[in-house]
Amino acid sequence: MTARYVAPVLMGLFMLALWEGLVRAMAIPSYILPGPILVAKTLVSDWGTLWPALLVTLRITLEALVAAVLVGVSLALLFSLSRWIELSLFPYAIILQVTPIVAIAPLIIAWVDDVNVSLLICAWLVAFFPILSNTVLGLRSVDRNLLDLFELYGASRWRTLIDLRLPAALPYFLGGLRISGGLALIGAVVAEFVAGSGGRESGLAYRILESGYQLKIPRMFAALVLISLAGIAIYLLLALVSHLSLRRWHESALSEE
Amino acid sequence: MLLVRVRDVSRVFANGVQALGGASLDIGTGEFLSVLGPSGCGKSTLLRLIAGLAEPSAGTIDWPQGRPDIGFVFQEPTLMPWTTTLGNVALPLKLRGQARSEREARAAEALAGVGLQGFEKSYPRELSGGMKMRVSIARALVTAPRLLLMDEPFAALDEITRRKLNTDLLALWERTRFTAVFVTHSVFESVFLSQRIAVMSARPGRVRSELAIPAPYPRTETFGTSAEYAAHCRLASAQLSEAMAA
């Protein structure tokens, strides 16, 4: 159990030490590759710039994720109610999913006046599909016999949805949510890169671009570290949500006995 | 008294397979009837038709005394993994809009009836196969149905558990005398349990013959080893072979 945490931490410390050692030994200039200590120092000294940027990116990520959950789950419910709606809409959902966001982001940014809204749309586009497809799968993966049982006792469609289909779909939905959390962050960052908007309200991706232009490479690394940490935090948070909702009954959340 | 009259019922699936080919059967109030037949002979389909979960393609199903409350036990326990045994057993009452406290009291009673008091808060994954099946039976009985339909409920269980459940099921039946229709492919099980056996032919299934098992209840392990039991098994076996050959 402890090896699970100790091993990766030791490995990480070793790699950081190796990195710092190489940078010093070979006297690599900081505009090519800054050492981890310099990156850490920059993170602290530039916190005043980086922290607000992180908040901007996180806000877009979170809003996109919420929108993805709302639209994804609503569409999935709609699909489960009507085969016709599913047949006519699902192919387009797939098209949206397979079209690279980098390719359509410029269009969306050109069409939508408010940059924040266009960033939100881009992040949402990337994030909503896993939730949609997983929830559709979950709503369909209901035990046939349980459906028969509900019919036998005269349950309405609504009751069957609330008491049977939704709980059965929950593990699938949560799996999709975990994927979408990371994707929403990626979507937000990619869209910021494409938009390249300056000003007060810019996110981390813009800070990275800006640092690149100004050859402030340590700050670029510091921003990268923040994005990675944000991604990890989102994943862990959603994994915790999933664990807490499923721990009583679902195989995926049970400890190995 | 006649509870249900099944006449010349056929059922053709959407893929063209004919599961039932004119099955007729009378079921009396309070009797324990087994439907015995080979795999795929349409036994389960017959049960689903009686339960109203499917419509016959031809033929009629009449209820001279009106359609009673029906309990159904599936081949698998078919429990909802996300709720406790109590929540599972209380489900039929919940679907009928009964208040929480009332339905939970009745569910606890039904659980005690199948020997599972103390397991109200357990989740299905924490129970053994035999216990899950007991929960399933408690759920089917919680509405105090006049007709209990069982679709090979013990087929997936080991021999020892199955025997125990067989005797416990009989005890439940003797206590409340619901009408029991028990589908099985086991000659021994059908003879041990029932007052009457309907033997079905291979697909498309029909009721080929009927056989009375006049032995008195309570039936215990002693009955299961008696010469009388063996004689009935031999007879039922012969009828099953005949039905399958026809």
Describe the structure.
- The complex is a heterodimer of chains A (257) and B (246).
- Chain A has 257 residues and is mainly alpha-helical.
- Chain A has one domain: Orthogonal Bundle (MetI-like fold).
- Chain A has ten helices and no strands.
- In chain A, helix 3 crosses helix 9, helix 6 packs antiparallel against helix 8 and helix 8 packs antiparallel against helix 10.
- The radius of gyration of chain A is 23 Å and the shape is flat.
- The two termini of chain A are 14 Å apart.
- The relative contact order of chain A is 0.13.
- The mean pLDDT of chain A is 90.
- Chain B is α/β, with parallel strands linked by helices and 246 residues long.
- The longest helix of chain B has 19 residues.
- In chain B, the strands form two sheets. In chain B, strands 5-6-7-3-8-9 form a six-stranded mixed beta sheet, with helices on both faces.
- In chain B, 39% of the residues lie in helices and 24% in strands.
- In chain B, strand 1 and strand 2 form a beta hairpin.
- Chain B has two domains: 169 residues, Rossmann fold (3-Layer(aba) Sandwich), CATH 3.40.50; 73 residues, no CATH class.
Question: What's the structural blueprint in terms of helices and strands?
Answer:
The complex is a heterodimer of chains A (257) and B (246).
Chain A: H1 2-25, H2 36-45, H3 47-81, H4 83-98, H5 101-111, H6 115-140, H7 144-152, H8 157-195, H9 204-213, H10 217-246
Chain B: E1 2-12, E2 18-28, E3 32-36, H1 43-51, E4 58-62, E5 70-73, H2 85-95, H3 100-113, H4 129-141, E6 147-151, H5 159-176, E7 179-184, H6 187-193, E8 196-200, E9 207-212, H7 221-224, H8 227-245
Parallel strand pairs in B: 3-7, 3-8, 5-6, 6-7
Antiparallel strand pairs in B: 1-2, 1-4, 8-9
